[in-house]
Amino acid sequence: MSDTITKGPEAPSGDNGAKGAAKAQKPERVASLWSDALSDLRRNPVFIIGAVLVFCLLVISAVPQLFTDGSPFEGGACDLANSLKRPSADHWFGFDVQGCDIYTRTVWGARNSVTVGVLTTLTVTVVGSLLGLLAGWKGGIVDSILSRFTEIFFSIPLLLGGMLIMSMLGTGNAYTVSLVMAVLGWPQIFRIMRASVLANKNNDYVMAARALGAGSGRITFRHILPNAIAPVIVVAAISLGVYIGAEAALSYLGIGVQPPQISWGLMISDAQPRFLNAPHVLLFPAAVLSVTVLAFIMLGDAVRDALDPKLR
């Protein structure tokens, strides 16, 4: 009875062996929350649709001249002879009561609405994040003072407070509306950031950084902030659409953006009394406003799903 020798796989030789060794030595991709989230977003159709819509809105608000030949601010842009004419091949959205082209006004109105949403979101995110980071990291008396101060603003409803402040100011534009809503909106971001910092400040990587001699500033901005910012980004993305809707509501009530500036809320307000005999005057700006708010909410929901490990 002879012994049976089982040969293992032969070692690769020549060029094939070199290629195999190179593949074997290729470093593996380091997984992280942000890389996994980006990978999920690329495969999420909700994020793709929302991102495309948001990109289009940003381009329209930045350069409306690319999407319409005329300007509603030019002399002779409105003609009473065209008052309440219905949509046609030449004028897709028809005309309003002043004989102004609704499509042109809708395109130019995107600038004020998107400006208010973006400026308000950036302001509340920066202010709320920095104050929440300070309160959560320092704790003690600093946390108590900032928390009590925040509760004063947090108790004021956004729309009701905006109505009160804007009515006292008398006149409004995109920048004053953004400032008013930022004053009332930052406490939400503050509370989210503070809670996130408190949940992360005693983790092992923070203790290790302290043991290695890292200062408070380095720990705060290099370790705490990157790991605590995810929920803030989610809320900020969703809130952007909310701020656009709030601006439209204030303008609809006559205390937001004022004529001769253009806002979707102003267009809806002017069209309301004529809805029964000329519904197109109200439907088109209202539809664009709804799609805009929906796009930002879709974007925020997709980001939330990607950044929340519990939903994986």
Which helices and strands occur, and which strands form pairs?
Elements: H1 14-25, H2 33-42, H3 45-62, H4 102-138, H5 140-154, H6 158-169, H7 174-200, H8 204-211, H9 216-228, H10 230-252, H11 264-271, H12 280-307
Features:
elongated, mainly alpha, 12 helices, 312 residues
Structure, explained:
This protein has 312 residues and is mainly α. It contains 12 helices and no strands. It has helices spanning 14-25, 33-42, 45-62, 102-138, 140-154, 158-169, 174-200, 204-211, 216-228, 230-252, 264-271, 280-307. The radius of gyration is 27 Å and the shape is elongated. Mean pLDDT is 83; it is low at 1-9 and 18-24.
From the N-terminal CA to the C-terminal CA, the straight-line distance is 58 Å
As a percent range, the share of strand residues is under 5%
Task: Output mean pLDDT.
Answer: 83
Principal-axes shape call:
elongated
Write the H/E string, N to C: HHHHHHHHHHHH
Number of helices: 12
How helical, in percent, are the residues?
Answer: 55-70%
From the alpha-carbon coordinates, what is the Rg to the nearest angstrom? 27 Å
Sheet/helix structural class: mainly alpha
Oligomer: single chain
Residue ranges: pLDDT <50 for 5 or more in a row?
1-9, 18-24
DSSP E strands, number: 0
In short:
This protein has helices at residues 14-25, 33-42, 45-62, 102-138, 140-154, 158-169, 174-200, 204-211, 216-228, 230-252, 264-271, 280-307.
